[in-house]
Each structure stands twice: as structure tokens, then as C-alpha cells.
Amino acid sequence: xxxxxxxxxxxxxxxxxxxxxxxxxxxxxxxxxxxxxxxxxxxxxxxxxxxxxxxxxxxxxxxxxxxxxxxxxxxxxxxxxxxxxxxxxxxxxxxxxxxxxxxxxxxxxxxxxxxxxxxxxxxxxxxxxxxxxxxxxxxxxxxxxxxxxxxxxxxxxxxxxxxxxxxxxxxxxxxxxxxxxxxxxxxxxxxxxxxxxxxxxxxxxxxxxxxxxxxxxxxxxxxxxxxxxxxxxxxxxxxxxxxxxxxxxxxxxxxxxxxxxxxxxxxxxxxxxxxxxxxxxxxxxxxxxxxxxxxxxxxxxxxxxxxxxxxxxxxxxxxxxxxxxxxxxxxxxxxxxxxxxxxxxxxxxxxxxxxxxxxxxxxxxxxxxxxxxxxxxxxxxxxxxxxxxxxxxxxxxxxxxxxxxxxxxxxxxxxxxxxxxxxxxxxxxxxxxxxxxxxxxxxxxxxxxxxxxxxxxxxxxxxxxxxxxxxxxxxxxxxxxxxxxxx
Length: 487
Description:
Blueprint: H1 2-69, H2 71-108, H3 115-138, H4 140-146, H5 151-163, H6 165-183, H7 188-211, H8 215-242, H9 258-287, H10 292-329, H11 333-360, H12 373-381, H13 383-406, H14 409-434, H15 438-462, H16 466-480, H17 482-486
């Protein structure tokens, strides 16, 4: 028996060694696959993060300069940024995001011939929309009062809103242009131009607000100049020959099939508007609480930091959108599924870092925006909730990128509506007013809506048939492709 057992052990050793030898190349293959995708993700996400942070920091800088003017000025700028700009940005970004699906999948399929036409159509639709939205800025003061906001803050916000009307039209061109560049992974120019523009914006604010003492009018002028510099730089980059296949000049084809293009754009706009307007509605709920100026200042400071952290996660939203759309357009469903996991993992890790930073500085970061003790105290109380919100949204935004890349805008719009407007906002009003939990109660409800949406999107993505999505992408490219459309 002992001899037999020894013989079996001798046979098992080579078998174990053989399995180990076979397993090592497999592990190396998996590791290489992760590393390759990691590089591709960061190649898109890195410059996108720089761009997002730089562009958002322009509003961040404006709020900081306004905060030095006084609490009412800060509250006025915050209401314009979070209510009016949130309203307009949701529409403009949504209209532009239709290009993420179309251009991304077309690039994956190697069909570049219609990208410039898509861009021009998006410009036309967005500029007309900007014109239609202009009255919301002209009558901003009345609108805010109808929404039961503080009259003094509303009057000042209305004056500021009129001065920043040129920004509406800059946004109309900017978001579409960004999607055109992102789909082709031409993102480094966007990063460099946004950083230079941010430096210019700081200088202009110092000149107009601090040096010349022009107050909020100076801040508005600085913002208008900065945003138009950013947009014009991108357009010049596109039309000056850097995209010979995708941009062949202005064409009458841009005015064809506008209705069909508008339908897809509206679906994208609805999805993103329901997301962005959710935060706007939260500001409005807070604006009706007791001590409105302090409450609005506190939640605006936290939202500014939340959105600033979100700009990092937005880099992976863009990366997920581009990589998923490219892989589906190329007919590679496994690649699309794999990149989802990589993007979620990296974004979640960054979310953890930001959450830890917020928790470590919850008593210090309010000083960046206000010198009032009541505002700083109220803001510090929101530190724990803010940290948790940042972590959840770092995952949530990647799921949005996946949805855009795959063309699920209408489905996600339904999810957003149910989670945010069916659960989050009613719960916020209940906790804030009925149970007198104030700003904290409103933020808890906002967090609950976001968490519910994240869970639902996780289930949807986990149950997705990626082979079917690749076939749908192929049909979308054929339907929207140049030869078929021209016929």
C-alpha cells in the first residue's frame, strides 16, 4: 500500500506542475488584458478629467470670487449656476450626447464620412434651442420668485443671469464639439485648451471683480469671455484640417434628416436633464427652508465640491461611453463588457480617495467659500453625507457612460424619473419640511434616489446580452451611415 501511495504521489506531482505551468500563461494573459484596457481607459479618461475639472473650475472660481463679495452675492450666483445653468446645461449636454452614441459606434465600425455632418446637425439643433431658452435668463428673477426663492437673492440673481446670456450660445456649440472629439479620442487638445482657458478665467476675474470692483457684472463678463475662448479654440482645431476623413467642410446635408436626428437628441437630452435637474430641484427645495440664505449657501458649497469630485468620475463616464460604443461598433461584445468592469473599478477607487479627503477636512473646506460661522457650521454637518454621495456617484456616472455608449438613453430616462422624481424629491420635501430635518434631510433623500438608481442600472448592465447590443450597433451604423442616408 505504501509503495502504491508513493507511486500515486509521484504521478500527482508532474500533474500539478503541468497545471501550474498552464495556469501561469493564462494569468499573464489576463493581466495583460487588464493592463491593455487600463491604458486605453486612461488614455481617454485622463485628458477628459483634466478638461472636466478645468471647465467646472471656471464656475468654481466664479463662486469663490462672488463669495468674497458677500453671502447674498454667493447665494445669487449659486442659484443661477445650480438652477438656471443646471437647466440649460442639462438640455445642451443632452442634445450633444446623441453624438456619443452615433459617432462612437461609427468610429468603431470605421465609418468616418458622416461625423462632420452629425456635428453640424447637432450645432443647428443646439443653437436654435439656445435661442428658445434665452427668455429663461431674461425673466430669471421672476422665475425664481415663482419658485418661492428669497426675493432679495432672486433680484440679484436675475441681474447676473442677464449678463451671462452669451454663455448659453457658447454651451450650445461646446458640448457637441466635445462629443465629436471624444468619439475619436482626440482629447489632449481639449485638455490643454481648457487648462489655458482656466488660467485666463482666473486672471479675468481678478481684473474685473477685484481690481476694477465691478462685482457680479465683472464676474459675468469674465465668464462670457472665457467660455467663448474655449469654444472657438475647439472649432478652429476641427475645421483647420486635423480631421480629413471626419470633417470635409460645411455641407447642405447638415439640414437633411434633422427630424430624425432631433428624436435621438431629445432622448439623450431627457435622460441627462432628469439627472441634472434633480440637483436643481434639491436647491429649490432648500431655498424654501428656514434661513434660506444659510441653507442655500451650505448645500451649494457641498454641491460645488460634489460636482468638482464628479468631474473626475466624469472622465470615466466619457471613457466608458467611448470604449463601449467603439467596441460595439467594431462588433466586439466581449470587449464592451470587459471595459465596463475596468472603468467601474478605477472610478470607484478614485471615489474612495475623494470621500476620505472630504471626511478628513469636513471642518476646514467650508472656509474656502464663506467666512460666516453659521454657513461653515451648517456645511460641516453635511460632510459625512457628502463623502458617501461622492462614492456612490463615482460608480453611478460610469453606468451612465455605458448607457450612452450602448444607446440606452430612453431606458435610463425612465429609471431616472422613477428614482429621482418618484422617490428622491418627495422624500426630500417630507424630511426637510414635515420632519424638520432641514438641509440634512433633503440631502439624505437625494442620496437615496441616487443609490436606488445605481442599483437598478447595475442589475440592467449585469443582465445585458452584449452580443445583441453589438448587432443593434451594427444596424444603427448602417441606418445612419453615409451611403444609405444619402440614398
